[in-house]
């Protein structure tokens, strides 16, 4: 992704860093809460803590995919964006 102005680069860098930091915080809370739930579950002699861990883990996985794969500036996002730009330019060129 090419950006003409340093302000745009700064804004994009801050957005990407904020999103990655948000995911890291999400992961830390996930680990802390699920360790607490696992301890509580073990203390009760039952193993119910895996269900919230699996459900929340899926959410954490999807959050991570959005941050690390689809975030603007990421490789996958840039490839999709370039393909759409080319398609729009070709369509515009053929309409003339």
Report the sheet with the most strands, covering strand number, pairing sense and barrel closure. none
| Rg value | 21 Å
User: What proportion of the residues form beta strands (DSSP E)?
Assistant: under 5%
Structural class: mainly alpha
For the record, the count of structural domains works out to 1
Q: How many helix segments?
A: 3
Question: What helical percentage do the residues reach?
Answer: over 70%
Query: What is the total tally of β strands?
Result: 0
Question: Globular, elongated, flat, extended or rod-shaped: what is the shape?
Answer: elongated
How many angstroms does the end-to-end distance come to?
Answer: 28 Å
What does this structure look like?
This protein has helices at 6-44, 50-68, 75-95. The protein contains three helices and no strands. The chain is an all-alpha fold. The mean pLDDT is 85. The protein has one domain (6-95).
Keywords:
96 residues; mainly alpha; 3 helices; 0% strand; elongated
Summarize the structure.
With 96 residues, this protein is mainly α.
What's the SSE blueprint?
Layout: H1 6-44, H2 50-68, H3 75-95
Helix pairs in contact: 1-2
């Amino acid at each position: 992704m090419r950006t003409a102005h340093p302000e745009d680069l700064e804004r994009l860098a801050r957005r990407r860093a904020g999103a990655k930091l948000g995911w890291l915080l999400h992961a830390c809370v996930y680990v802390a809460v699920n360790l607490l739930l696992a301890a509580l579950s073990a203390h009760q002699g039952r193993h119910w803590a895996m269900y919230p861990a699996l459900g929340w883990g899926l959410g954490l996985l999807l959050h991570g995919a959005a941050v690390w794969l689809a975030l603007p500036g990421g490789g996958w996002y840039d490839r999709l964006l370039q393909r759409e730009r080319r398609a729009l330019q070709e369509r515009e060129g053929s309409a003339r």
